[in-house]
Structure formats: structure tokens, C-alpha cells
Amino acid sequence: MDSLNAALAGASERAVLSRGVLDSIAENNPEVIALQETKLPSDGPSKKQLDILNEMFPGYKIAWNSSVEPARKGYAGTMFLYKDNLKPRVSFPKIGAPGTMDFEGRIITLEFKDFYLTQVYTPNAGEDLGRLKDRQVWDVKYANYLEKLDKEKCVVAAGDFNVAHREIDLAHPESNHNTAGFTDEEREGFTKLLKRGFTDTFRYINGDITGVYSWWSQRIRTSKINNSGWRIDYFLVSNRIAGRVLRSEMIDSGPRQDHTPILLEIGLQV
Question: Is 208 exposed, middle or buried, given 0-12, 13-18 or 19+ CB atoms closer than 10 A?
């Protein structure tokens, strides 16, 4: 994923494509926008970056969570943009995750009167699965956190969960069972999360449709053309509000590889 800075202010061909994706998000006029892997410094966006964001998304307030020491600088990070008529309570929870994961800016939660809206950038297990054991601990801690929220009020959880849950969630499952994002351990962690009382809205609305993905590798030049993708970005909701979901789908990002935006339309009172 490009840094948010590159997407906003870069001059490369890819930066232009990235701004086009941001424009496509704006065209949908969402109440709330969740961004992951912002890679901003620990003190957040610069004035120039904020000015660009305010120009692209006028009428939105911005909340961010950046990676801070002892975690790496300019790493991970999340951001919410929400319409300025909304008045959520914003929090940046730590979940007792291993290593530096709690310091990498991976979760932001917005609390509204009747529900929580939270986003996550789940840690990647790594190319050599060197972070898989820590990732498994994260999955348990994060499931505990969502369940705690769910006991207080219903939950909408968005983000890059870094896992293709089922074989129909990626183009080539047969060759990826030992690949980060499709290990048995990560898939089991996601299954256990859903069993805590949450619904994968895309599958709820679209059933077992195949060939619809949210991410295509930048390292393989033809991944988007050949639709060799993965569905690793999700909107989850508490089971008891699944019936209020109206749409859960991908927003076309054109030729740009990497993540495509996902959209949720749900009937909730803010």
C-alpha cells in the first residue's frame, strides 16, 4: 500500500491512480471513511496533507492513529474521516497485543449513541510467517475486544483483516495454504471471530459468489488483469443487525493494483 502522503501529494503515475481511487470514494458521499496503512509520522498528517484532505473531502472531521515508539516510525496507521455533523466519541484502544502491535496505530473506534464503528489494520503474518504466532495472539485479543464492545451495543467493524477466510475468497487457494493471509491458523482465527457473534456482510448479501476480490498483488504485474486477487477487506457487523445491511460490495478502482475500496450501506441511526 502507498503511504497516504504519496497518494495525496505524489507525482507518479501510481499516485495519480491512487487519487482517482480517493475521488471514487468521495463520489459515493459516505457518512464515514476508514483508511488503513496510512504510514503517517507519529504526530499525524502535516498541514499540507490536512489541506489536501479537506479539499478532497470537504465537510469531514479527521481522526488518525499513527505508529509510535517503540514501534517503527511511518508504519501501519489508520484514519477515519466522518461528516462533521456526526458527534462520535473517538478512542484509540490497546488490546494487550504482543510485541509492538499496540503501538502501530492499528485500531480506531467511533462510539455513537446506539452502536460502535471500529476499524482495524490487522498485522500481517509476514512473508516467512515470522509474525504468525504473534498474529494468532492478536486475533484472540481483537476478538475479545470486539466481543466486549458487542456486549455494550451493536458493532460495525471495518478494515483490512489480512486474511482470505474461505477458498472462494482468493483466486488460487491451492497454492497459498502456506502463504500469509491464508494459513490454517489465520483462517481459524477469523472463523472464531465470527463465532463470537459477527457476520461477514459481503457473504451475507452476496452468498457464495466467486471472483470478487478486494486486493491484487503489486508484485505480479498481471494480477489485476487476470483477476488473481484476494478478499481480505471486510465489513463485519453484530449478528443482530445483519438484517439492516442493504449493500456490501467493492468500489471499482480501475487498473490500480493493491486494495480497492469496499462499501457498506446499513440502516443505523447516527
Answer: exposed
C-alpha pair distances (Å), 201 with each of 100, 163, 204, 235: 30, 15, 5, 6
Average pLDDT over residues 134-160: 98
Choosing from 2, 102, 150, 160, the catalytic residue is: 160
Catalytic residue among 60, 121, 142, 213: 121
Q: Is residue 119 a contact partner of residue 38, using CB atoms and an 8 Å limit?
A: no
- β-bridge partners, 81: 33, 62
Give the pLDDT confidence of 58-88 residue by residue, as tens digits.
999 999 999 999 999 999 999 999 999 999 9
Q: How many CB atoms lie within 10 A of CB 6?
A: 15
Helix (H, G, I), strand (E, B) or coil at 250: strand
Q: How many helices (H) and strands (E) does the chain have?
A: 6, 14
Backbone angles phi, psi at 179, to 5 degrees: -100, 140
Known catalytic membership, residue 160: yes
Read off the DSSP letter of residue 246: E
Q: Measured between alpha carbons, how far is 142 from 139 in angstroms, rounded to an integer?
A: 5
Domains and CATH numbers, the chain: 81-266 (3.60.10.10)
**What does the DSSP 8-state code read for residue 179?**
S
Distance, CA of 211 to CA of 253 (rounded, Å): 15
Three-state DSSP class for residue 137:
helix
Q: What is the pTM of this model?
A: 0.96
- Which neighbouring-strand residues pair with 120? 107, 159
CA-CA distances (angstroms) from residue 97 to 35, 107, 133, 250? 21, 12, 11, 30
The answer to whether 213 is a known catalytic residue is no
In 3D, which of 110, 99, 197, 217 has the Cα closest to residue 159?
A: 110
Specify burial of residue 10 (Cβ count, 10 A radius: 0-12, 13-18, 19+): middle
| Beta strands 115-121; 154-160: pairing state | parallel
